[in-house]
Amino acid sequence: MGSAGDAFKLKAHPKLPKDKIIALVVLDGWGEATPDQYNCIHVAETPTMDSLKQGAPDRWRLVKAHGKAVGLPTDDDMGNSEVGHNALGAGRIYAQGAQLVDQALESGKIYDGEGFNYIKQSFATNTLHLIGLMSDGGVHSRLDQVQLLLKGAAEHGAKKIRVHVLTDGRDVLDGSSVGFAETLENDLAKLREKGIDAQVASGGGRMYVSMDRYENDWGVIKRGWDAQVLGEAPHKFKNVVEAIKTLREEQQPKADDQFLPPFVIVDEQGKAVGPVVDGDAVVTFNFRADRMVMLAKALEYEDFDKFDRVRFPKIRYAGMLQYDGELKLPSHYLVSPPEIERTSGEFLVHNGVRTFACSETVKFGHVTFFWNGNRSGYFKEDMEEYVEIPSDSGISFNVKPKMKALEIGEKARDAILSRKFHQIRVNIPNSDMVGHTGDIEATVVSCKAADEAVKMIFDAIEQVGGIYVVTADHGNAEDMVKRNKKGEPQLDKNGNIQILTSHTLQPVPIAIGGPGLAPGVRFRKDLPGGGLANVAATVMNLHGLEAPSDYEPSLIEVVDN
Ligand SMILES: O=C(O)[C@H](O)COP(=O)(O)O
Ligand SMILES: [Mn+2]
Ligand SMILES: [Mn+2]
What we know:
561 residues, alpha/beta, Alkaline Phosphatase, subunit A, 2,3-Bisphosphoglycerate-independent phosphoglycerate mutase, substrate-binding domain, 8-stranded mixed sheet, 17 helices, binds 3-phosphoglyceric acid, binds manganese (II) ion, manganese, Pgm_bpd_ind, metal-binding, EC 5.4.2.12
């Protein structure tokens, strides 16, 4: 009888040795683009990352990090951390949440599923609440899916619907939330014409209300809870468009879409139109997991001590997807998530590869939870150590653009020098987190800090005779301006350039090196279309192992010198 681990045994690589110490560095939001003044990576002093380019084509190349290469519906979809780290860790391309929800809506299967049937039981007597990110960013949610869901829910018996919106400005241009709110209002008006009592009930900016992640700041979830569930917020308006316009103009200090304060919509008597009460149904319509897990816990867990909920209504709650496969959270969901199994992390621990993973809070789950296929916890506790460095909370990261890069570098260095681990995996968040603020100067500083952290890790790898693999999960800081079809910066109606706070469609670099890298190792020339999903097999090879046959092929070959 074999043990459970036997199913994970991998063959030894015919040419590459085991037991090398490998640093696997993911620079978050670090793409490759035209070197101009809006390319913060180009503008910043980044000698370490720059020097790697000289290794091209054998030890430096580009890989795809967006669209179909990472399981998104189309090649117009920019990459993001969830799909990027899923692909990096799983070594295969899965149809991701965005696509699965599209399919379920198009076929109508979403309305036959367990999740919808569960919430439907509330429709005859109670309200259906939809909570989520209102944009067409396609990273956490998409407004066209919400529009279909509204229509479908009405057709399937929902009589009273309340939408709780979170404004974006991070995956889409700042200021675009007004247009999305108008679109939504139009749809709700059409439902009202059909006799359905449908309205927006509350709102707030995603980074200030409801969409925190990895437990960095429960205050964010509480602000959302107060507005959405209790119907209480510092700002009250008659409708959502007026709310967003007014708050954008009048809020001091100035608030953009990402940081709008919470508001509720009130009736003529000043009463909130849509608090959540016993018997109601609630759907969180984001398909992406990380920024919904905390809210899902607040909505679902009877035992909960993260903040005072004041009231804990008995509701029927479903996520658009199940957000955490290990916690089975939430227990009801409208669409089944991608079944990401047999990830590289699980294989490696069953093949003697001791693993260390580290980032700061805001990206900690990227190199653990996302890396392991949206699964929290360890595969084998005695083989793994995950270290989280607390992030600053309650600030926008342009204020502290170095973030915890050097602390991450130090932790990785110590783990490398301890020689206790074979794989030291880190995510360095700076170029992404500061890129999202749209502050070009701060983003330049952030890229420099990330480069310094990489240097610390390389120095340690040098000392232990190890190998490094450096890559990124998608682009961001390499292009900070919205461009027209010719690639020129696009101007708004006042003649100002339109700052791009979002990710990009750019490819990302991957570089290999270090004293432990066998001399004959080089990137293959026959995989020009390679993407992030090819990295897992590559890393397995460098650990001296053959990758499973269903993994996307390794990017490297070993030639006799
Ligand atoms: O959640 C976010 O911060 C953005 O929507 C996407 O950024 P990420 O994919 O890099 O986390
Ligand atoms: Mn990312
Ligand atoms: Mn990002």
